């Protein structure tokens, strides 16, 4: 029954049966048929018998759950791969352990021109300080080291790394032995990453793509730009991903657009938008997010990199040239600059055109009723990372240390965004927090601030359909006939309809309600295990011995 497509690929027909198929087309479905890259049929076990003799393959699910694949709507792919294959201090809990890891890594990489590492976070270190430059010099034997903080908005470096950038002490963001921020950070990062060989870069990118596939992720939104990576890195990643069967990579290049020529240059790179990390501000952890009132633990309001006028110019130009715009904005002053700028652009080019363009805002952590209303008014996608709250929320977390408990309790208000009708797309910002869709959905459903919680179903939609809609793929991210054959198989426990708080809109748990169940994500329980990931009908990950 297999055929050949116009491109010479074999079109196979596959029957999956004996499981639980998560589909709005049939909430009781246990079987699915795919033909080539599309879903052909979804239904019951009894009806599946009629397909069994006419397909190329029958997959016995043995009770496995079938879901649409996930989209991670904010990733730094090469940096993720470097963390997976190199020096990653994520989870290190003491200064001594950090220095030991750095020393061991330096010894293991004698040929590296610059040592690259990521992930330090002193929030809960008993020493309550970062390594000094002298300590880093000693741990590396004096070699150049670039070591980004977990939020990637500041970095520690050795003396020899500073020497790679003449005049660094004159750049904004250089402050003696303190972590580098702003221009000084960007200059050292660019110099350090320029030492990556094409082979090392490709190794890191392949590792990140394979890791994503192992988590049931079929689509990544790469958030790149001149202040983050390089054009060579960006185009090499898009080329590498296009040559494989998956995951797909949708590239965003964060550079301001003021003309058709600017838009054409960004399209020529292969980008789907001038968005992602176009910085309006920095991060809370590095105290560079732009606030309307000073930090609780520092006498300043952070850094604003782009004002409302700059936002307006970018949004208007992108809208007029048919390009998706977007921004990185975390602090309340930064988010207000975005919404003020989008409003000004809408007055210039028309609200309907702005809404139709699906512009987006990354992170959007410190929101007010006014800015949430503006997101809804202009159909701005909130590309958010629930793992941030899991990592740094709560009464004694980093957010509370930076902002005080009252302001910190207002961060990441997913329920308010959902009630207002704001499109949500979930991601990780990996390597800032690890890729892991089910963990992200759990973090949103069990937000550390109860009034911000959303249902598991709402989080699941944001991590499947939400990310695909953000790039204009409205027919994807759901299992229905005619949709792309992008799906994952999971080993999991009992399926439930879960709303962990009475303040969250609930659905009936009665099977007659027709609401398909999802895994129980109560904290402490085991998360679903990915058995297989399929993209366009082709298997891109299969768990060993399954």
UniProtKB/TrEMBL annotation:
A single GO molecular function term of this UniProt record: hydrolase activity, acting on carbon-nitrogen (but not peptide) bonds
All copies of domain Amidohydrolase, residue ranges: 57-541
Protein name, as recorded: Amidohydrolase family protein
Source species of the chain: Streptomyces bathyalis
Keyword Ubl conjugation applies: no
Keywords attached to this entry: Hydrolase
Pfam families, A to Z: Amidohydro_3
InterPro entries named in the record: Amidohydro_3, Metal-dep_hydrolase_composite, Metal_Hydrolase
């Amino acid at each position: 029954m297999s055929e050949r497509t116009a491109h010479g690929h074999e079109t196979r027909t596959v029957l999956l049966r004996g499981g639980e198929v998560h589909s709005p087309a049939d909430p009781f479905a246990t079987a699915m048929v795919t033909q080539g890259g599309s879903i052909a049929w979804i239904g019951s076990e009894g009806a599946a018998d009629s397909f069994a003799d006419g397909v190329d393959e029958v997959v016995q699910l043995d009770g496995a759950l079938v879901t649409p694949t996930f989209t991670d709507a904010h990733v730094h792919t090469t940096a993720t791969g470097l963390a997976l294959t190199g020096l990653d201090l994520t989870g290190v809990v003491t200064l001594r352990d950090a220095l030991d890891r750095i020393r061991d890594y330096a010894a293991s990489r004698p040929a590296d021109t610059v040592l690259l590492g990521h992930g330090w976070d002193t929030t809960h270190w008993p020493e309550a300080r970062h390594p000094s430059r002298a300590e880093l010099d000693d741990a590396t034997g004096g070699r150049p080291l670039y070591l980004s903080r977990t939020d990637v908005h500041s970095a520690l470096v050795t003396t020899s790394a500073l020497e790679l950038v003449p005049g660094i002490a004159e750049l904004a963001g250089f402050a003696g032995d303190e972590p580098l921020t702003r221009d000084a950070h960007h200059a050292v990062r660019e110099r350090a990453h320029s030492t990556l060989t094409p082979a090392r870069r490709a190794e890191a990118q392949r590792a990140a793509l394979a890791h994503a596939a192992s988590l049931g992720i079929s689509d990544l939104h790469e958030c790149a730009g001149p202040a983050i990576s390089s054009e060579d890195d960006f185009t090499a990643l898009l080329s590498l991903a296009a040559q494989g069967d998956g995951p797909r990579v949708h590239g965003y290049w964060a550079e301001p657009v003021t003309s058709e020529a600017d838009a054409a240059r960004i399209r020529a790179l292969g980008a789907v938008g001038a968005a992602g990390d176009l910085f309006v501000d920095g991060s809370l952890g590095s105290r560079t997010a732009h606030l309307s009132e000073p930090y609780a633990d520092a006498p300043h309001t952070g850094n604003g990199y782009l004002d409302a006028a700059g936002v307006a110019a970018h949004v208007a130009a992108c809208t007029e040239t048919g390009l998706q715009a977007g921004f990185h904005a975390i602090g309340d002053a930064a988010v207000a600059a975005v919404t003020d700028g989008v409003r000004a652009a809408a007055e210039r080019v028309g609200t309907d055109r702005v809404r139709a363009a699906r512009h987006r805002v990354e992170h959007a952590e410190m929101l007010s009723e006014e800015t949430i209303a503006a997101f809804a008014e202009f159909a701005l996608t909130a590309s958010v990372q629930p793992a941030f709250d899991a990592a740094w929320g709560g009464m004694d977390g980093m957010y509370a240390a930076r902002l005080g408990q009252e302001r910190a309790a207002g961060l990441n208000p997913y329920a308010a965004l959902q009630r207002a009708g704001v499109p949500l797309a979930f991601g990780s910002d990996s390597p800032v927090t690890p890729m892991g869709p089910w963990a992200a959905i759990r973090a949103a459903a069990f937000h550390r601030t109860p009034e911000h919680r959303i249902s598991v179903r709402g989080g699941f939609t944001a991590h499947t359909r939400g990310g695909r809609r953000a790039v204009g793929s409205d027919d994807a991210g759901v299992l229905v006939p005619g949709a792309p054959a992008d799906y994952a198989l999971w080993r999991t426990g009992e399926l439930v309809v879960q709303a962990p708080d009475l303040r969250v809109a609930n659905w009936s748990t009665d099977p007659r309600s027709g609401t398909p169940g999802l895994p129980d994500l109560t904290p402490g329980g085991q998360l679903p295990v990915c058995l297989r990931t399929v993209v366009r009908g082709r298997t891109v990950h299969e768990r060993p011995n399954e």
